[in-house]
Task: structure prediction
Amino acid sequence: MPAHDPNRPTSSGPSRRSVLTTAGLVAAGVALDTAVGAPSASAAAAPAIFYSPHQDDEAIGLAGSILEHKAAGRPVYLVLVSKGENGDLAAFMNQGNCQSLGGNCSAPGHYHKLGWQESWPTPEVVTGRTAEFNLSAKALGVDKVINFKLSDEAFGDYDNFVKKIMAKVRALAQQYPGASHKFAAGWLDKNPTHKACSDAAYWLMKNGELTDVRFNHIYAYQQYPNPADRGRGAAYVLNIPAAHMAKKRSSILAYNTWDPSRNLYTLGYHSVPVWLEQAHADPREFVYTLPSNYRTGPV
Ligand SMILES: [Zn+2]
Ligand SMILES: [Zn+2]
Result:
């Protein structure tokens, strides 16, 4: 394990932390009447809070950044934003002879006829995906898992969904002054749920409620089959050290584990196998700042 330190960015780590401390004091002074009384708030290192729009996004495109922040001494909190309802996925799990993954899924005999509810809100899918998410979070060693439990209304009342995300993120920002906030780059991911997350971040930044914000292009692995095309325009391409990549691959494995006694049904691999494989093969993550021409609204 001595390989950690040589690979860690040496120049950006400490300066980033001092910037964060400054931002935290400003935020506390401006907005936080209720939290001022908490004696340890400014003494403890402020957390880096990562927002995974769905179960699996943290494994695909946030894991390396999570481990980078942990190695820099930051507490890392991992938020699951949506419940991850998904009727197509339920249908996959009900199909009997599994045709997913080229008929080669990890269920015994590649057979599963689970009788799951395919109509909204697909409770078994939500439970199963969340079990995989929690196992993934454990593999990454995050300090806290926070589940917003928001119904994924990105395809319905989009604006209301954004407002619900904003309210939850605002509460965390107030609870943890000086925290940095890491979202999906929804405008690049081109997925409505991801876009709702970056829209929420946009409005909160505009209000001055969030100051230190970054966005990972989580779907880069799927959108660009050629790895050389990934990371264009990124503020920062993270080269994930080997020891961290091993943990990221453990987190990806949580989505390809069949163990019904633990509610694990390989749902991630029935849902986005190529993306998980591409992320497994590419030891990089792609970090962006908000573009000046950012437009809110569903993609
Ligand atoms: Zn997603
Ligand atoms: Zn299957």
Summary: Residues 79 and 146 are 5 Å apart (CA to CA). Residues 98, 100, 105, 107, 110, 112, 270 surround zinc ion (ligand 2) (CB under 6 Å). Residues 46-288 form a domain with the Rossmann fold fold (CATH 3.40.50.10320). The chain has one domain: 46-288.
